[in-house]
Automatic annotation (TrEMBL):
GO terms for cellular component: membrane. InterPro entries: EamA_dom, EmrE-like. It comes from the Eukaryota. Keywords: Membrane, Transmembrane, Transmembrane helix. The chain crosses the membrane at residues 56-78, 90-112, 118-139, 146-166, 178-196, 208-230, 242-263, 270-289, 301-318. It comes from Branchiostoma belcheri. This is Solute carrier family 35 member G1-like. Residues 27-162, 180-312 form the EamA domain. The lineage of its organism: Eukaryota, Metazoa, Chordata, Cephalochordata, Leptocardii. The gene is LOC109471496.
Length: 337
């Protein structure tokens, strides 16, 4: 009996030790990887909804409504502080709302002109460099040599994907221009949003729910007006289209929460780099859902981006694990007292 109790206690300690040294250090990485899965899936729902004839802005409006409802659902349970403490926080919250919604609109509109895998190849691949530069300028956050190597691989992959789009172009020049400029514009909307969110959530400890509540509520109101101004919304949908819209809302909401939870512990540039793993997942879903197979040139760009992301993700997890083991050693030796 005593032996059984001892074995159970030993197993519990080993399980707790594994979680503390392997899972906890990689929490930010895991959240970023969760974002990639949900974001890639959301892009497919967006493409399917667009193919069913639902205007792009209307789909984004519905997604923002779903994200707002999710934030409202969690507010009574977590009760975050919905007011800011100083003028700087208020300014950052306003900027976060603007950049988050601008980046979302540009990103999801890219899926109307490009299959999601290629659109993500440009957006996610160029995002780490832009985010790392902005993060260094405004938060003084630096990235190491290994992280820089991964970012360079991502940028090289983006160049290959964009070059493939140009030489394989069979559509009008206007559509080709939109296919390249829209994803790049989305990058320069997303990058400041990540840095500002990192400042609010990771540095100033503003609640994730507070940031998302204001961003999504404002986005839903603005997008409703833009939908009626520039498009003719369609509210009569088939059951399949409704299912696609619900899937878009759920996946978009989950991806947004995962990103902001990652930013609580990870630098903006690192989070942006790990999120580029969305690209190979989106390309795979393009083939499964939309029967779209990328050319060898585009595939080469995706492989470069995938490899660069893997380097940064593994190195970030290893670095955090090393820090955790060192901290545990110091505590066991009573050096922290």
């Amino acid at each position: 009996m005593a032996t059984a109790t001892y074995n159970e206690e030993t197993t519990d300690r080993e399980g707790a030790g594994f979680a503390q040294t392997c899972l906890t250090p990689g929490a930010g990485v895991l959240y970023a990887l969760l974002h990639t899965v949900l974001s890639a899936t959301a892009s497919q729902f967006m493409a399917l909804g667009s193919q069913a004839g639902i205007p792009g802005l209307q789909l984004i409006f519905l997604m923002k409504c779903g994200e707002t409802l999710a934030a409202l659902l969690f507010l009574p349970f977590f009760r975050p502080k919905l007011t800011t403490e100083k003028g700087r926080q208020t300014l950052l919250l306003v900027l976060s709302t603007i950049t988050e919604n601008a980046g979302s609109v540009l990103q999801f509109m890219s899926f109307v002109f490009l299959v999601p895998g290629i659109a993500f190849g440009i957006i996610k691949g160029s995002l780490p460099l832009a985010t790392a530069c902005i993060g260094f300028l405004f938060l003084k956050e630096t990235v190491g040599v290994v992280d820089c190597f991964g970012i360079v691989l991502n940028v090289a992959g983006v160049v290959l994907v964009a070059y493939g789009l140009i030489i394989e172009n069979t559509s009008s020049t206007q559509r080709l221009t939109a296919s390249i400029l829209l994803p790049l514009a989305a990058t320069f909307g997303r990058a400041p949003s990540l840095v500002i969110s990192r400042s609010l959530i990771g540095v100033q400890k503003v609640s994730v729910l507070t940031v998302l509540f204001y961003a999504n509520m404002t986005g839903a109101v603005v997008l409703l007006g833009l939908t009626y101004l520039f498009e003719t919304p369609i509210w009569a949908m088939s059951a399949q289209t409704v299912g696609n819209v619900v899937g878009l809302c759920l996946c978009g909401c989950g991806a947004q929460f995962a990103t902001n939870l990652s930013l609580k512990t990870e630098k903006a540039g690192i989070t942006a780099t790990i999120r580029t793993f969305t690209i190979p997942l989106a390309v795979l879903l393009d083939y499964i859902v939309l029967s779209e197979l990328p050319s060898p040139l585009k595939s080469g760009g995706v492989v470069l981006i995938m490899f660069g992301t893997g380097v940064v993700a593994v190195y970030t997890w290893w670095r955090h694990r090393k820090e955790t083991l060192h901290k545990n050693l110091m505590q066991s030796l009573d050096f922290d007292k």
